[in-house]
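Input:
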Amino acid sequence: MRLHRYAAGLCSEAARAGCTATLLLALPLSGLAGEAGAARDVRSDAAWLQAVQDAARRQSFTGTIVYQRGEEMHASRVVQLFDGTDSRERVLTLDGQPREFIRRGEEVQCLYPEFHRVVVVRGGPRSFPAFAQPLPADVLSHYELRREGSERVANRSCDVAQLVPRDHLRYGYRLCVDPSSGLLFKAQTLNERGAVLEQIAFTDVHIGEGIDAGQLRPSWPTAGWTVDHSDSQATELRQQGWSVTPPSGFHRLAEVIRHLVGGGDPTPRSTLQAVYSDGLATVSVFIEPGAPVLGDEGASQRHGPVTAVSRQVGDFRVTVVGEVPPATAQSFAESVVRSAPEH
Amino acid sequence: MNSGPAPQSAPPDPGADAERLCAWFDGELDDAAAGPVLDRLLRDRALQQRYARWSVVGDALRSSEVLAGHSPQLCARISQALADEPALLAPAALRPALKRHLASGFAVAAAAAVLVLVAVPQLRGSAPGAEAPALVSSVPAHPEVAAARPARDPRLDPYLQAHRDFMGSGVMPAAAVYLRSGSEGER
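Output:
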C-alpha cells in the first residue's frame, strides 16, 4: 500500500482510510452487513485500501480531532486544503503546550511558540524511493478487511471496517469512514483481545468548499524565531556493518543516519535508524554506541500501541520503537547482528 | 506499615487487607510478605476492584504533569485521590461484560486504557477486562515497580520523535503522529 508518504503529512492522513464516494458505490454494499466479507474478491479490498490512499490528499476539510491514549487525551484543530494539485495542512494543538504543524509539499514546519523555535522537517520515506513500499495486496496478506455495519461519529453515520491481523505480530484497526466524503472520521488501534490501545476521532468537521486559505497561516508571527532543521541522511545498514532481519511482513522503508536530541543528553548524538513497515504499522530500529537506553538488557515499555525495547549488542545500544506488540519489537531487537563493516 | 506475613487463618478483615495491599502497592513488602497479599488479591474480588481503582488513580497521578513527583508517599496520595475518585473508573476494568461498551464508550475506554499502564500479569487471569502489563522486563516485573514507573520514560523521547518522522504510514491519521508525541520533550 502506497501509504507511506512523509509522516509529517499531518492530517491529510485522516483522509487516508477514506475512499471516494464513487469507489464506495462500486463496492458490494451488502458487504456492509458483514456476511459478504469472506466471499468478497481480494481485489476489491485492495482497491478499497488503494482508494483510501488516493483519497487521502484530495479532500478539503476543517475540524476538531480528539486523540486518546492511556491517560492522555489531546484535541487539535485541523485544516486541509486541496487545490487540485497539492494539499496543504495545518494542525494546531488545543490543549497542553501550544504546538503547530504546517505542511507544504514534503516539508513540515513544527512551531514551538514558547521557545520561539521552528523545526523544519524534510525527507521521510518518499526521499528513499529505492525501497519498495508495501502495496495493498501486501497489507491484505497480513490483515483481513472486514465490514461491520455503521456507527455515528461527528453527527454522521459512518461505515465501519476492521483490519484484523492474520497473525500475532501486529495490532488490529477499526475504522469509521464517512461514506459521502470518504474521510476517516474515527480510527482505533486494537490489541489481540479487541481492547482499544489508542483512538482518534473527529468531533466536528466541515468538508468541501468554503474553507479560507487564511486558516493555513501560522498562529504566531515567526519572524526572528530560531529555525532548526531535522534532516536525515540516507545510508545502508550493511555498509555500516549491521543487519536486521524483520519479522514476517515488514519491509524496510528507510535506512538513515540522523541526530537525536533530548532524553537528558544535552549533546546531539548520531544514530543509525532503520525503518520498517507492514503497510500499517511502522517500526524503527536505532543503533548507536552506548549502554541500553532503558538500562536493563531486554527491557521494554509500552505506551498505548507503542512498544519500546532496548538491547545491548557489543558496545552498541539497540533501541526498537514501533506500534507493534512487545514480542514483535523484541523480535526486531534480537535480529540485530553486527556484520563485517565495509570499509 | 505492617510488613509481616498475614496469618493464613486470619478471618477476612477488609481494613487490614486494604492496608497490606496498600503497602504492597507502595513496594514496602518483601517477597515473603507480598505472597499472602497476592494470594488474597487473586481470590478476593473486592480487593481486585480496589487494586484496579488504585491502579487507575495511581496512573492518573503519574500523568506528565506529576511525572517527577512520584515518591514513596504514592499510597498516601492515592488515598487522597480516592476521596474524589470518579465512580466511572471503578468497575469497568474488571467486568468482561462491559467490554463491548468499552469499545464504544469513549470515557470508559479511556479508563480501560489507563489500566493498561499498570495492570500486572498476575491479575490477567482473574481480571479479563484488564490489559496486558504495560511494562515488561527480561526480569519478571515486580508489580509495585510497574505501578511506580512513570507513564512515559523521558529517555525514550528522542527515539519516539525520530520514529515519528517516519510514521503516518499506518492507519492512524498523521495528526495522531503529532498528538501522540505532543507532550514529549523538545527536539
